[in-house]
Amino acid sequence: MSSVIKRSSYYKGLAGIGAAILLLGIGLYFASIRTLYDLPVLMVLLGIWITGVNAYRVAKPGVETADIEFNRKTINNFLTNYAIIIAMVVLVVVICVIQPRFMQVRVVLDIMTQSSTKLIIALGICFTLIIAGCDLSAGRIVGLAAVVSTSMLQTQDYANRFFPDLAQLPLFVPIITAVLICMLFGALNGFLVAQYEMHPFIATLATSVIVYGACSLYFDLPPNNSQPIGGVRPDFAALGQTKLFQVGSFPGVSVLIPIAAVITVVIWFVLNKTVFGKNVYALGGNREAAVVAGVNVYATNLFIFVLAAGLYGIAGVLEAARTAGATNQYGQGYELDAIAACVVGGVSLMGGIATVSGIIAGVFVFTIITYGLQFISVSPMWQQVIKGIIIATAVAIDMGKYRKKN
User: What is the DSSP letter of 103?
Assistant: First the structure.
């Protein structure tokens, strides 16, 4: 049994569902049911988004006009492709039943804030995954950026200054310095991969060890002697702690969210609208065909890792500003979470396939699950088990797609 509907009718149906959610949210809001907390507001926002997106799709001419077929195969494919997201939605519903306080705008904003720096790292690492590689140095480069920037942005009256005689520098100088140092290590990654055709796994593993060693040596310099770096300047802390639109009872939007949003838009443009982005996809899809087509493989590989390291550096600076401090352990394991988020978001480990929207979804899936499990006091050990199951499932789905494709 199968049925076919026009794509425009499909989008209209989704817009109708969005409108229904919107109206239900408005009704619940005026019903003033305290146990629902901010659920009506969240439903209104969700309804507006679903309705707006699908209304735009209906109104936009000449795009995705093919009919949609519903049969057992397409439904199975849908359930397979979105299995983790469906599981996440079910988990969120269960969490909301167990602990209704999860249905608060404050919680949503906390999740978005925690996702911001993770998203920037994932956007950097996705470039290396698109070319069927990886980057195991990402986490250590994040830590390096945090230590370098924080060491030069302490208040003058802090007792344990990293550089006691250093004059107060303009805010952008230490930040740019930290990011440029990170990009140098990214260039080392790119050089090893491009010049010696070293597998990115080995090249970035070596660089990760070098970065951690160099960062630890820097962190151990006297008079700091491996003490956590604190006493950061207010203007630096404001980069990660400022709240926008904080009015009345509204908790405000972390400045990290718009920063991550701007970087996301830039990366989307790079991947989809530039020659470099097209070359990255071409290199990951079919290296030999890319060479024949005139893609400069050496330069593309080099710039991929430089750009990725720059994004790690920005994330490290923002993470240090958010926590108002740093140690040489910052960023440990971040690369594994970023790779996992990318895979969950549909980035193929076989290369050539990635979407920015998918990466955003992958990052949010992991953050929501982690935050939600902590919210209902699930043991950290069980959280690791669940995270491992998610990663294994995502990779299994990706490999299944690859086998079908070939």
Answer: S
